[in-house]
Fold this sequence. Notes:
Layout: E1 4-7, E2 16-21, E3 27-31, H1 44-47, E4 63-64, E5 67-68, H2 71-89, E6 94-98, H3 104-118, E7 123-125, H4 132-142, H5 152-156, E8 159-163, H6 167-170, H7 172-184, E9 189-193, E10 206-208, H8 215-229, H9 234-240, E11 241-242, H10 244-252, H11 263-275, E12 279-283, H12 285-288, H13 293-306, E13 316-319, H14 326-332, H15 347-357, H16 370-378, E14 384-388, H17 392-395, H18 399-407, E15 411-416, H19 422-426, E16 429-432, E17 441-444, E18 449-453, H20 466-476, H21 488-500, H22 519-523, E19 528-529, E20 556-557, E21 576-581, H23 597-600, E22 607-610, H24 612-617, E23 625-629, E24 634-641, E25 649-653, E26 686-692, E27 697-703, E28 714-720, E29 723-730, H25 734-748, E30 753-755, E31 760-765, E32 768-776, H26 783-791, H27 798-805, E33 816-818, E34 823-824, H28 825-833, H29 839-846, H30 856-871
Parallel strand pairs: 6-7, 6-14, 8-9, 8-12, 9-10, 11-20, 12-13, 14-15, 15-16, 21-25, 22-24
Antiparallel strand pairs: 1-2, 2-3, 4-5, 4-16, 17-18, 18-19, 21-26, 22-25, 23-24, 23-26, 27-29, 27-32, 28-29, 30-31, 31-32, 33-34
Helix pairs in contact: 2-20, 3-14, 3-20, 3-21, 4-13, 8-10, 8-13, 16-18
The structure holds ligand MGD (2 copies), iron/sulfur cluster and molybdenum atom.
The site of molybdenum atom (MO) has 3 residues, from loops.
Amino acid sequence: xxxxxxxxxxxxxxxxxxxxxxxxxxxxxxxxxxxxxxxxxxxxxxxxxxxxxxxxxxxxxxxxxxxxxxxxxxxxxxxxxxxxxxxxxxxxxxxxxxxxxxxxxxxxxxxxxxxxxxxxxxxxxxxxxxxxxxxxxxxxxxxxxxxxxxxxxxxxxxxxxxxxxxxxxxxxxxxxxxxxxxxxxxxxxxxxxxxxxxxxxxxxxxxxxxxxxxxxxxxxxxxxxxxxxxxxxxxxxxxxxxxxxxxxxxxxxxxxxxxxxxxxxxxxxxxxxxxxxxxxxxxxxxxxxxxxxxxxxxxxxxxxxxxxxxxxxxxxxxxxxxxxxxxxxxxxxxxxxxxxxxxxxxxxxxxxxxxxxxxxxxxxxxxxxxxxxxxxxxxxxxxxxxxxxxxxxxxxxxxxxxxxxxxxxxxxxxxxxxxxxxxxxxxxxxxxxxxxxxxxxxxxxxxxxxxxxxxxxxxxxxxxxxxxxxxxxxxxxxxxxxxxxxxxxxxxxxxxxxxxxxxxxxxxxxxxxxxxxxxxxxxxxxxxxxxxxxxxxxxxxxxxxxxxxxxxxxxxxxxxxxxxxxxxxxxxxxxxxxxxxxxxxxxxxxxxxxxxxxxxxxxxxxxxxxxxxxxxxxxxxxxxxxxxxxxxxxxxxxxxxxxxxxxxxxxxxxxxxxxxxxxxxxxxxxxxxxxxxxxxxxxxxxxxxxxxxxxxxxxxxxxxxxxxxxxxxxxxxxxxxxxxxxxxxxxxxxxxxxxxxxxxxxxxxxxxxxxxxxxxxxxxxxxxxxxxxxxxxxxxxxxxxxxxxxxxxxxxxxxxxxxxxxxxxxxxxxxxxxxxxxxxxxxxxxxxxxxxxxxxxxxxxxxxxxxxxxxxxxxxxxxxxxxxxxxx
Length: 872
Ligand SMILES: Nc1nc2c(c(=O)[nH]1)N[C@H]1C(S)=C(S)[C@@H](COP(=O)(O)OP(=O)(O)OC[C@H]3O[C@@H](n4cnc5c(=O)[nH]c(N)nc54)[C@H](O)[C@@H]3O)O[C@H]1N2
Ligand SMILES: Nc1nc2c(c(=O)[nH]1)N[C@H]1C(S)=C(S)[C@@H](COP(=O)(O)OP(=O)(O)OC[C@H]3O[C@@H](n4cnc5c(=O)[nH]c(N)nc54)[C@H](O)[C@@H]3O)O[C@H]1N2
Ligand code: SF4
Ligand SMILES: [Mo]
C-alpha cells in the first residue's frame, strides 16, 4: 500500500499526516516525521482521523428541495438562480459564506467568482468569528495582516504568555512542543491569562484569572509599567514606530487594578515581562472573540513594539489561528473587507486585481460582515446565499435567527461533505463536496507554512472538489475563460502569480517563486514558509526584526486602546457571564470528530461549568440539569460544578448541534454583539441566568437501531461502540417517562419488553438484547458503561440476563481520559492507588498518555490531586 503525505484537516498547527489506505475505505494514520510543524506528533483528534473516514452520513449526490438531481441540473439551477437575482435585484442581493476549512484553491475560486465576476464583495467567511480581530489589529499596527513569528520562537523564548488560549486542548501539538522546550530549559516561564483555569495551566508558572474582557486594561497597565521602568527599546521605537505618546497617554489613564487580579500576581507578571527579552505573547479566541477584540490585539502588540521584541528569535506577538486554512483564507482575501493576495479596496489595488483577473465587474466596495450578512438575508435583502464548508446555523451567535433567515431565503445553497448538519437541513440546494482524504490542494498554518493536502481515498458517490463546483457555475454564467482551470495546480499558480503581481516588496504576502511550478512540482511540493518572492533565493523566516513595516512610511503604529466594557453587561435578570469554547476531543459542530467512538469518551455530554458559589445559590449539583437563558434564547446543559471558573462566570462548549442534541445548542443563547472595527462576534461573553430545571428522571438508552428521541428537557446522542446511545432527563413523572421512552425504543426495536429492577427495562428477542433503558431519579453517568457490554453479547446466559435486569455491573469508569487507549479516569486512579506516582509509571501501567499525549495535562492533574490530598 502506498503511503500518502498530507496535512491534518483540524487545527491551525497544521500537522503533517502520513496516511496508508487499507484498501477497504479506511486508512492507517500516523504523524509525518518530516513535517516541520509536528515532526511526527499528532494529538488525539489527529490520531483518530482514521475513525472519521466512513461514508456514514455523507452527502453523495446533488439535491434540490430534498430530491436527488444530476450535477447538470443542480449547476444549471444555481447559475440560473444567481443570474435572475442579479438581474432583478443587483449583485449585492447575492452572498457567499465560506470557511477556513476550504483549501486555498477552493477559497481562491470562490472569492474570484463573487468579487471578480458577480460584482459584489458580499462574501464573508467563518474566519469572521475566528480571526477578524487579529487581522484588523495587525493592519492597524503593521499596515498588513502579518504574523511576524514562527513556531520555533516558542521553543526559544524565556517567557511565553498565553492570552485567551487553551493551547493544551486547541493546539495540542504546539502545546507539546512548548511543554518539551520548557522541560528541557526549566528557566523558561509560562504565564496563562484566562478567566478559566484550563488544562493549559498545567505548565503555567503563573495563571492570571482575570475578569473576563479586561485584557485591554491589563496590557495598558503593562505598557505603562514598561515605560515607567524604562524597559523600552528606544532605538527601535524611534526608528521604526510612530504614535507612542498618544498610546501611552491613553494607557496610563486606565487601571490594571480593575482586572480583578491580586497586586502580587500583577507585579510578578509585569516584572517577568519587563526583564525577559525573549518573550512571546500568543493569543487566541479569548482575545479575538470580543467587542474589544481589536483593541486587545493592539494592546498586546503595543507592548512588543515598545520593547522592540518582534521578528527576532524567541520573541514577538503571535496570533495563533484556529482552522487548518484560516491563513489561506486571508491570503486569498475572502473576508468581505479584503481583496485577494493581501490587498484592500484601495483604488490602486482594485485596479491591479481587476487587470490581473481581466474583469470589468470587480466589486468596488467592501461587502457585509458575517453577522450583518445573515441579518440582511433575514430581511430579504440578500436573496441568494451560497454556504461552503461551514455550519452557520450551529456556529453563528443568535443561531436560531440564522436558521430563520435561511428559511426565508429564496435561493439557499450549501456545498457540504455531510448530509446531516443543521445548515444542510436549512438549505434548499445541496451540493456534495469531496472531504479530507479525497480532495487535494494547499493549506497555510499559523506560522505561514504552506502544505499540501493530498487525496488517498477515491471520490465517493458524485462528490466533487469545491473549486470544480464553483468553476462549473462560473462557466454557466459565461465566465468560462477566467475559470478554465484543469486542476488545483492551475489555481495555485494563478494565486502565486497574483501575490507577486506588481508587488515589489509593497505587500507581505508574496509566493511568486511558485508561480511557475509545474504539475509534478505541485504534486511533490514540500511544506514551505512564506514569503517566497521570485527574486530572493531564501524563503520563509520572520518579519519586522529590522522594522520595515507595511505602512507607507514603513513604521509600525502604536494604537491607543481605550478600556471599554463588553457591549452587554450582566443585569439582575441575567447576572452570570456565559463563556463558550472548545473541548479537547471534539471539532466544532462534530460532523467529523463526532463519528469517532474513542473521541466521544472524553466529554460525552454537553455540560456547563458553574462555580460552587453560583451552583449553591441555585441549589444545583453536578449532574443536575440547568437552563441557560439570555435575551437571545436558551439552551439546556448538564451541570458540572467546578472552581475552574470564576464566581459569576459559566463555561459551555460550542460543539453540540440539533443533530446530536436539540436541547444543548449554546449559540441559540449567545449574543450577536460584534467588535466595531472587525465585526467579530463576542462569543465569549453573554449575560445569562441559570435556572435549575425540575427534572424528575434521568435516563440512558442503548439500542441496536436508532430511535427518535421524544421531546424531553435535556437529551443528547452519545457515540458508543456497537450501539446507538442516548442520555436524557425530563420533567415528567418516572412512570410517564417509562411509557414515553419504552414506546420510542420499541418503535424501532420491536420485540418483547422485559422489566427489571432499579428502573431497567429491555427489549430481549431470542435471548439477545436489542435495547435497554435505564431510568433513575438521580443522574447516572455510569449506566452507559455498565450496560453497553450486554449489547455486544450474543444470546445471554441466565446469569447475564439476571445481571442486566439488575442494572449491569458495578463499573463506574468516571469518563475517558486517554482517547488513544480508552483509559478511564477510574483506571488511572486505580494505578495511582497501586503506587504509580509519575506520568511514566502510569503510562507503563495503563498505556494512558503514551501515544498522542493530549491527555498528559489531565493525568498530571490527577497526580497532583493525590499528592495534595496526601499532603493535607
Ligand atoms: N479540540 C479542538 N481544538 C480546536 C478547535 C476545536 O473545535 N476543538 N477549533 C479550532 C479553532 S477554529 C479555533 S479558533 C481554536 C480556538 O482555540 P482557543 O482560543 O484556545 O479556544 P477557546 O476554547 O475558544 O477559547 C480560549 C480561551 O479563551 C478564554 N477566554 C474567555 N474570555 C476571555 C477573556 O476575556 N480574556 C481572556 N484572556 N481569555 C478569555 C476561555 O476561557 C478559553 O479558555 O481552536 C482550534 N482547535
Ligand atoms: N459559541 C461559540 N461559537 C463559535 C465559537 C466559539 O468559540 N463559541 N467559535 C467560532 C469559530 S472560531 C469558528 S472557526 C467557527 C467554526 O464553525 P463552523 O465552521 O460552522 O464549524 P464546522 O463544524 O467546522 O463546519 C465545517 C463544515 O464544513 C464541512 N466540510 C468539511 N470539509 C469540507 C470540504 O472540503 N468542503 C465542504 N464544502 N464542506 C466541508 C463539515 O462537514 C462541516 O459541516 O465557530 C464559531 N462559533
Ligand atoms: S494539533 Fe492535532 S488537530 Fe491540530 S493539526 Fe496537529 S494533529 Fe491536527
Ligand atoms: Mo476558529
